[in-house]
Design a protein that fits this description.
With about 210 residues, the protein is mainly α. It has 12 helices and no strands. Helix 10 crosses helix 12. The protein is elongated, with a radius of gyration of 19 Å. About 25% of the residues are buried.
Length: about 210
Amino acid sequence: MPHKYKSLFKQDSKLCILLKEIPDQKIIQLSNNGKVREHLIQSIISQQLSIKVAPIIFQRFLNLFGGSFPANHKILSIETEQLRSCGLSLQKAKYIQNIANFFSEQKLNNEFFYTLSDEEIIQTLTQIKGVGRWTVEMVLIFCLGREDVFSVGDYGIQVAMKKIYNINKEKKELEKKMLKIAENWRPFRSYASLYLWASKDLKIEI
């Protein structure tokens, strides 16, 4: 992981403590594999499933198509009930079909997203029914490797910031305060988010 953000974060006394307390190997890595369609579909499959169950359901999904990730036309040619047979709810099956249909109709490929800003990608992909802003923000961080994404609606980040920064606010007031603090982390807000997630998982006390 690049350390170019660390000098900036040291100006924030709370983040500075996290930098000292959390070793690099405990920080999730940004990823830049660029497989946007695949990441979206896997995200839909994994939603509301445990870390243990999600990979099993995803593998069953792949097995429907011979073990490899299917092209859009293959997803669209299979019956909804066949998709559900791998353990998907009706809603998730339809959302996966929505993604395949959108990418097919718009003739989108993964390279297309490298030409867009973060907000343009969010506006493009949230047109798909079943794909919300949070899902696309995770695509930006963990699929496109964007370094300055701050998901103010992410539950884990909210919990971490309320604890670390002693924020006693909720909903819109909480988000307003979070955004104000996060402005100091530009242009590396994604990295700050990685530390916040780690602080929650590791139960770091400040």
